[in-house]
Here is the input.
Amino acid sequence: MSSIQSPRHLLIKSIRLSATLLVLALFALLSYRIVHGLSGARAAARMTRAITSHRAPPAPNLRLSVIWPQAGTWPQRLRASAHRGTLRLGDLRGYPVVLNFWASWCSPCQREAALLAAAAKARRGRVAFIGVDVNDLTGDARNFLRLHDVPYVAVHSGRSIANRFGLIGLPETFYVDRQGRIEEVMRGELSATKLQRALGRVFQN
Here is the structure.
């Protein structure tokens, strides 16, 4: 004779099953973040070692989606590439490039935005500044760009570019020379002194 389970007993079993599945999902997410966080940290360490030993690793030539085609401060020859919707870093060879990784929700990014805008204007036609939006909604990113009157191109990045550059936090700024090699990286919020020193050292010409 089979027993009939009461509705209350079935509800308890359902709650326990849901709780178990939730715990498993959270554990999987945590494991994923740990693994990817470690891989990002390893990539960042390799990048830093290469730069500090003056090996200047090549910048990953990834396809980037343009969300802010304001190329008025870029070298004249490069401006058309900003209006195609996508671009590659390889398209910018022959000119120095400043890649600033940021997000609209990042307070240090908000504080350094004016410094980067002023630097881009001061080097109009000679250096291509690019804002790389990370882990953000496109609408929020565009609001940030409008609010800070950003005078250079911004792109939206996926996880792949953050991993390839060894990103470990925001903001981070990479300085790429005319041959497409990363000559310098600054992790954390920029100051006027740090920015001017890096630009002078890396882009002397």
Remarks:
- The CA atoms of residues 109 and 171 lie 6 Å apart.
- Residues 1-205 form a domain with the Glutaredoxin fold (CATH 3.40.30.10).
